[in-house]
Amino acid sequence: MAGTARRVAVGTIVFIAIVVLALALWKLKLVIALVFFGFIIAAAMRPGVEWLRRHMIPRSAGVLVHYLALLGLIALFLWFVVPRASHQVSSALGSLPQTRAQLGHQAQSATGIKHDILVAVQKRLKHLPRAGSLVHPALSATKTAFEVLIGIFFVFAVGAYWIFERDRAVDVVASFVERPKRKRLRDTWDLIDAKLGAFVRGQLLLISFVATLLSVLFWAIGLPYWILIGSFAGIVEIVPVIGPLAAGALAIGVGFTSSWHTALFAGLCVLGVRMLEDYVVTPRVLGHAVGLSPLLVLMSVSATGILLGGFYVLFAIPIAAVLVTLVDVILRDVDPAGEDVPTVLFPAKEVES
Q1: How much is the mean pLDDT over the chain?
Q2: Which of 22, 127, 218, 306 could form a disulfide with 226 if both were Cys (CB 3.0 to 4.6 A apart)?
Q3: CA separation for the pair 23, 32 (Å, rounded)
Q4: DSSP letter at 344?
């Protein structure tokens, strides 16, 4: 009886500990996601940092070069895209009614979907808060922006730190594993790192390619707000499956505000670029970087969005890639050292530890 009671007590304590740990991880899911994001950024930079190190440039300087290059790309985007996008936004807002009386007049004169939209907007305007009640939302928005900046700084700090400390962390984890299995663990870790890095670098190339090409095509067919929609189409490439569908629907919808011909051409442009991406660009740029089928990608995106929320959809493919790699190595007995990862800007398998 004493032995049974002891086993029951130990089992109860273990169960409670697992539940408490699961709840703690759930509460810390945002922090865990940001740390994981930092690991992904480090995986994307590592081949470039190691390439620079082989050319007598220290790792710290290599990380700084990568971050400066990223800031340069952002500055180029702000210099070239934002002024034109702001002009298009101003043009769009300038055509909207500025007062409730103007809105009501347009709602009465409009028909069909436009009438329904204007009437709905008119109803919402009646419930707008007064000026005095806007102070708290403004302060809340400022606080949110500050938290976002802190989050971005945290992610890039984790990425830089992981460049220097990953090998030491792998050694610590390997010390808890039997000696014959340590090489397999390191090879698995290197394979996951290489897959995530190739995926991120490929995604950045695809985003730039889609945004640039669609913006040019939309400008050529005379689509209103072409640079806004083209940039949006590139950015939503981050969200697999759902993002391209949303970009296509937006382009067609905006095209209908001009003519059905413009809407048709916009849809054909999105379809053509998507086919070019799927059959030419993606196989050559990404290859099978993460080893996921389209069905598995769709399932992982849907499950992540439902369980964790929209923000965490960004991590759906990386998380699925990690899980699939672990399943291959642990259950299917795949040799991680023999797996190939496509070269995206830098050969991922030549990273030196």
Answers
A1: 77
A2: 218
A3: 13
A4: B
Q: Kindly report the CA angle at 16 between 12 and 19, in degrees rounded to 5?
A: 140
Alpha helices in 236-293 (DSSP H): 242-256, 260-276, 282-285
> Token pair 């934002």 is at which residue?
82
- DSSP class of residue 121 equals H
Type of residue found at 7: R
Count CB neighbours of 335 within 10 A.
12
For residue 44, the one-letter residue type is A
Q: How far is CA 248 from the centre of its chain?
A: 18
pTM of the model: 0.72
pLDDT digits (tens, 9 = 90+) for 125-163: 555 555 455 455 555 557 677 777 888 888 899 999 999
The confidence score (pLDDT) of residue 288 equals 60
Cβ neighbours of residue 178 closer than 8 Å, sequence gap 6 or more: none
d(CA 350, CA 353): 9
Residue 127 CA to its chain's centroid (Å): 35
Comparison of pLDDT for 259 and 101, the residue scoring more: 259
If you search the block for the tokens 């790309």, which residue do you land on? Answer: 73
